[in-house]
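[job 0417] fold request received: Lycopene cyclase family protein
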Amino acid sequence: MHIEADVAVVGAGAAGLSLALRLARPPAGARRLRTVLLAAPPGPARAAPRTWCFWEAAAGPYDAVLRGSWQRLRVRAGDGTAVEAGIAPLRYKMLHSDDFERLVGRELATSRAVSRVEAAADRIEPEPHGALVRARAAGGESVTVRARWVFDSRPLGRLPAARTTLLQHFRGWFVRCGQPLFDPSAVELMDFRTPRPAHGLSFGYVLPTSRHEALVEYTEFSRAALGREEYDRALRHYAEDVLGLRGYRVTACEQGAIPMTDAAFARQAAPSVFRIGASAGATRPSTGYTFSAVQRQTHAVAAALHAGRRPLPPPAHTARSRFMDAVLLHALDSGRVDGPAFFTTLFARVPAVRLLRFLDGRTGPAEDLAVGLRVPVLPMLRSALALPFLPRRGVPHP
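[job 0417] inference complete; emitting structure tokens
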């Protein structure tokens, strides 16, 4: 099969689906772009189902398919002391990848601009006025797409060289309890009543969707992921010994590893080939949140395409944000700051809405300074001064 297109979107994760959806909805008067979304068929090349969390004010474009949303967040210190805050007018939202894919699929089914082809891309070959994507369908058939612009959202095989790279790795259980054991009014954002690993930090995370149901996760910030048995042992301890859950049933699981790195991600691979999403640096290095940056990035790309401009994806985060994240990552990795105390103090001393705006990169220099004065200044300063002398090393993608 050979297809000629204006745009090829490679990969159907958050970034690929978001860009395809925006191109399926051209603004009035814009030229309709022939777009092909190449989605890997079921198999090893396709990402496992997962949840994405983000925050935004008031209603959003994906509210109809959210699994839950909240206006209160809670952080617990290791001794159980809780810091709880409202985040109105913001809402913390949980979106499942399957629900998002179905939403986009319904839109594409009626679109005259975007078509979806199930095929896993093998390679992308630059050409004088575009690029050729070579892919393979589930049955082994060859699929080629020649496009003026190609946007690659697939994970990188190897991360760019970085001074510090930690993993935010986790396993979560979707649980259902016979008794009403959850508080659906608030998210347990970071619960540090978990055993401290030898290096890094760990915490529990609870997204309650009703009095009886929740996503319960065990998360670590450290250098290496765990085995499944180790995750399940930690989850069992957190669910039963910390949360006191009894008579619960695990209905589904999710597991993942998100690189938290101060690497510089290239957004362009060839004159007509660009990267989008996590492979273009959309993941916030200090938190692992990605979805909001993906929305900003794909909005800018779609606007440029519809306006006939060169669609280089913008940086997902400001240089100031990336520098602050690099300092924090090194401070955590070196042990200069105590992770649980750092995050608990930050949530206790900074108004929640301002802190979320800061974590989303939407604050100005004055607000950033105000947040910075609430953290351990001397350890962070020592980490900042050490950065220029740290070597950059490449690591495989988890």
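[job 0417] notes: The mean pLDDT is 94. The chain has three domains: 2-49+96-160+265-307, 68-95+162-258, 319-396.
[job 0417] exit 0
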